[in-house]
Design a protein that fits this description.
- The chain is mainly β.
- The protein has a single domain (3-121, 179-417), classed as 8 Propeller (Methanol Dehydrogenase, Chain A), CATH 2.140.10.10.
- It has one helix and 35 strands.
- The longest helix is centred in the N-terminal third of the chain and has 9 residues, at 14-22.
- The two termini are 31 Å apart.
- The relative contact order is 0.19.
């Protein structure tokens, strides 16, 4: 079992990292320390149809783009686009030659090849926790009032024109997840009177369809529902009167919202399920990892050994789990490799071209088969955190929150590397 360890760097604990990123503000005049000379900088040319259109790349949330070749072992920054507000740490979406990202109270669009800003739409609420979804020439975005994701505070789902950001429709919901799209309906989690539920929406109008209420008086759904092979999978967390938490997985008919089966877990399940190879892969907050067959039979289980703050990623038979201590690669329940890190990782992962890209302090890349370090994107600054990366063709895109010296304000941007 190979094991790698990255060089020691300044470490923020889970609460410290959350507090640090919460302090991000509008950008100052910040130089791009990794930008190449404009005369020699490589150009980005995405293939027709290339993109990363939803949370986790597919509706099954694998985080694996099998059509991407990935970036060079010594990446070059091609462009950097600044955004106002706070946070760019969730996955951007890439579609139709544009990159879309939520920051502050706006959704921003950039030319994916050049980084030129195209538009930004004020949502009047925070979209940074919710990656955009692109489908059928429409951009679906989610925003929520300040105060935390796991609340019944006001929020909304909106359909925007990806060409200019104009709003096509808006449906108000106390949202707790971003949207999933199966080609027929949108699905989004929400919370009302301390109970979580999933709401189906008409993607053409935003009109409400069926609603599935988690069968527990106190519950929540934070993970985006996953759709695969005609079934919608929902992970939920139940809260007992004494404060203890447990989890549950529900298999829903996407046409009616009725549950065909369900399964309980001891660990809370705040992350989106990942569906691959006829199995649903689940990770609990406490690092519990388990699989369930698509007909509800329990499979293998493991303990990653530390807390988890983001969904796992799956590619070519391996499940990658990102903990606050390390990255663990499982092959059918057995640890294939473990790459330890002294940095707390709270953002996310993506796989393309046989490489696992991990957002954090800084962004780094591992060989997906062996766990060997391929590169790290470092800078001589006071602090920086890269968000969940996405890989499209031979381009790596990621948001970044950066502070160049102690006492300075954080600056936010999106960067593109080849």
């Amino acid at each position: 079992m190979p094991q790698g360890r990255f060089s020691r760097r300044a470490l923020l604990g889970a609460l410290g990292a959350a507090a640090a990123t919460a302090g991000c503000t509008a950008p100052a005049d910040l130089a791009s320390p990794q930008s190449s000379d404009t005369d020699s900088a490589p150009e980005i040319s995405l293939a027709d149809g290339a993109g990363w259109t939803t949370h986790g790349y597919t509706t099954a949330h694998t985080g694996h783009n099998p059509d991407a070749s990935g970036v060079a072992s010594d990446p070059t920054q091609v462009w950097e686009g600044f955004v106002d507000g706070i946070y760019t740490l969730r996955e951007p979406a890439v579609a139709g030659g544009r990159l879309f990202v939520g920051s502050g109270e706006s959704t921003w669009a950039f030319d994916a090849a050049t980084g030129e800003p195209e538009w930004d739409t004020d949502l009047g609420a925070l979209p940074h926790q919710y990656p955009p979804t692109y489908r059928d020439d429409t951009l679906f975005v989610v925003a929520k009032a300040s105060g935390g994701v796991n609340t019944d505070l006001p929020g909304s789902v909106r359909a925007l024109d990806p060409a200019d950001g104009s709003q096509q429709w808006r449906t108000d919901l106390p949202v707790t997840s971003t949207v999933a799209h199966d080609g027929e309906w949108l699905y989004v989690a929400a919370k009302e009177d301390k109970q979580g539920y999933v709401q189906a929406l008409d993607p053409a109008s935003g009109e409400r369809g069926w609603r599935f209420d988690v069968p527990a008086p106190r519950s929540y759904v934070l993970g985006t529902p996953a759709y695969a092979d005609g079934t919608l999978y929902v992970t939920a967390t139940h809260l007992a009167d004494d404060g203890r938490t447990s989890g549950a997985l529900y298999a829903l008919d996407p046409a009616t919202g009725t549950a065909s089966w369900s399964m309980s877990t001891e660990a809370a399940l705040p992350f989106a399920p990942v569906v691959a190879d006829d199995r649903i892969h689940l990770v609990g907050r406490d690092g519990t990892v388990q699989t369930v067959s698509t007909d509800g039979e329990r499979g293998w289980s493991a303990d990653a050994g530390a807390d988890v703050y983001t969904r796992p990623t799956y590619a070519d038979g391996r499940l990658f789990v990102l903990t606050v201590d390390d990255i663990v690669a499982y092959d059918d329940g057995e640890v294939d490799w473990r790459a330890a890190s002294d940095r707390t990782q709270l953002t996310g992962m993506a796989v393309g071209g046989g490489t696992l890209y991990v957002g954090g302090e800084p962004l780094f890349a591992l060989d997906a088969e062996t766990g060997d370090v391929q590169f790290e994107l470092t800078e001589d600054v006071f602090h920086l955190t890269y968000g969940a990366p996405v890989v499209v063709d031979d381009v790596l895109y990621a948001g970044i929150c950066i502070k160049d010296e102690a006492g300075a304000k954080y600056d936010n941007s999106v960067r593109a590397f080849v």
